[in-house]
Amino acid sequence: MTMDIDTLRTFLAITETGSFTGAGSRVGRTQSAISQQIRKLEDRLGVSLLVRGGQGTSLTAAGTRLVPLAREVIDAHDRALAAFGGEGRGGRVALGVPELYGERLVPLILPEFREKYPDVEVTIEQNETAGLLQSLNSGRLDMTLFTDAEGAVGVGPALYRNEVVWACAKDLELEKLRPLPVVVWREGSHHRRVMLGGLDRAGLPYRIALSTQSVSGIMSAVSAGIGLGMILRLNLSKDMREVPASVGLPKPTPPVLYLAEHESTVRNPAAIAMARHVRETVPNLKMTQN
User: Fold this and answer.
1) Tens digit of each residue's pLDDT (9 = 90 or more) over 150-161
2) pTM for this entry
3) Which of 53, 84, 115 is the last residue of a domain?
4) Quick one: CA torsion of 271, 276, 281, 283, rounded to 10 degrees?
5) Which residues does residue 96 pair with via DSSP β-bridges, in sequence order?
6) Domain shared by 11 and 147, yes or no
7) Cα angle vertex 124, ends 75, 156, to 5°?
8) d(CA 158, CA 45)
């Protein structure tokens, strides 16, 4: 008895995206083709693997047992190809990374990938979620990490969560300032809308002290005491402090990292290798505070 590698990839795509539709976007197949693959796999194994319902697709007990085994088989297959000049040994891959995480993620993801696949040409685009998804949909990116699942297809489970805090310079007497001086992202930014929307809902008067288009710009302005900003807790520096609850600022919603892939990824060995590396690496990142 043998099992087809592509069918196992499809099976894992279903378990990771939670639906046949999401899996179809990831592996580049129609729902009917995916259904046929799974039906043949179940017939081959003599068990039912998946249950489709109104809330998505769930695993049976047999399906749960197959998940780690399928990953082992696929990993062994891909390692064998790589060892003899196959997957990931050459080619190109374009990865999108949110600006909010870029300074942390890029140096943590790429060195290990470069060590495994030294001949792959990697292109990195750092942008807001909207820009990253636009690049993905146009085919300029093979895949992208992003922090907002709205409007994306082929999205798997959350890979990483991190806390966001309001921060200001250590010596800034923020409690005495009204309206509150704020440092925000450029016009049209998702993070800007979230930040200013929270202040509006809380009924807190504010003024925009500075608008910038980069993480470094936000960090520099907050550290210099120009105003308060909404940043990742891991980016708090020694020149900053977290704004105390007594100021009355709304609690920020923690950003969640997802990975979405272009439908052509399934035909790009280098992209397959990168997507697998990102899914394995990002959940285990130790992005500690400065």
Assistant:
1) 444 445 677 887
2) 0.62
3) 84
4) 120
5) 125, 144
6) no
7) 45
8) 30
